[in-house]
Amino acid sequence: MKNLQSTTTLHNGIEMPWFGLGVFKVKDGSEVINSVKAAIEAGYKSIDTAAIYGNEEGVGKAIAESNVPREELFITTKVWNSEQGYDSTLAAFDESMKKLGLEYLDLYLIHWPVPKQNKYKETWKALETLYKDGRVRAIGVSNFKEHHLKELLEDCEVVPMVNQVEYHPRLTQTSLHEFCKQNRIQLEAWSPLMQGGLFEEPTLQEIARKYGKSTAQVILRWDLQNEVVTIPKSVKPHRIQENANIFDFELSSEDMEKINSLNQDQRVGSDPDVMNKL
């Protein structure tokens, strides 16, 4: 983990950057275009969007207007809950690709398990088809707990490469992380900064002062040292650059433990067991 281009190798051999830009709640049009362009100019290679974010077109435009070759970028999007099911997922993928203006995708995720609907196994079959057809280089899930993963692993042909979940010092999901490691599933953090809810945390402020870094930088560094891919969101170019300035220091094992101990199993997002929004 030396710089923004450093990668983890997924279990199928595909290299995924440890660090990227998330664009949740970033408006389509100039806001998302400028945000993605600023990230790519700053050296980011990974951009994470989703159908439900409503900004795939802007992400695609920024990619097209950047002077970085497509093969150097790692682009993720996700199928939304209302489109789950085999045929509807394939159609949703086509729609996302049209909006993004891409020939292939690097990572496609099931956005939520949606327990009431219980279609994620069927949806996974569609992702396996897209993967076998070479339209996407890696497939995975988002917001899956251990029991969802266990059910999926019972009869899937392809083991998910990634599980993107809410992950920050107040929600360390240690057991899930361990399960993912055992099954060679890369954990990825959304809302790594808890939507700014950790910036005033005294322990983090103290550690930040020690290293001459911001609390955000300390949290993002903690992610990486825990071997968790992370995708902080920002629309401000200076913040996009600052977030990425985490490769010139290393947290001591003692400080890592201090941050680990902040866990309270506290979510800012929905609990996957009750999230059934379509």
Provide an overview of this structure.
The protein is an alpha/beta fold and about 280 residues long. Helix content is about 40%, strand content about 15%. It is built from 10 helices and 10 strands. It has an 8-stranded parallel β-sheet. Helix 1 links the parallel strand 3 and strand 4. Helix 1 packs across helix 2 and helix 3 packs across helix 4. It is globular. The protein starts with 6 loop residues before the first strand and ends in an 18-residue tail after the last helix. Belongs to the aldo/keto reductase family. This is Aldo/keto reductase.
Topology, please?
Elements: E1 7-9, E2 15-17, E3 21-22, H1 30-41, E4 46-48, H2 56-65, E5 74-79, H3 86-100, E6 105-110, H4 120-132, E7 136-142, H5 146-155, E8 162-166, H6 174-182, E9 186-190, H7 202-211, H8 215-225, E10 229-230, H9 237-244, H10 253-260
Helix content: 25-40%
Helix and strand run: EEEHEHEHEHEHEHEHHEHH
Shape verdict: globular
Q: Mean of residue pLDDT?
A: 97
- Which strand order spans the largest sheet, edge to edge or round the barrel? 3-4-5-6-7-8-9-10
Number of strands: 10
Residue fraction in strands = 15-25%
Distance between the termini: 38 Å
Poorly predicted runs are none
Q: What characterizes the major β-sheet?
A: 8 strands, parallel
Q: DSSP helix count?
A: 10
* Quaternary status: single chain
Cα radius of gyration in angstroms: 18 Å
| Class from secondary-structure proportions | alpha/beta
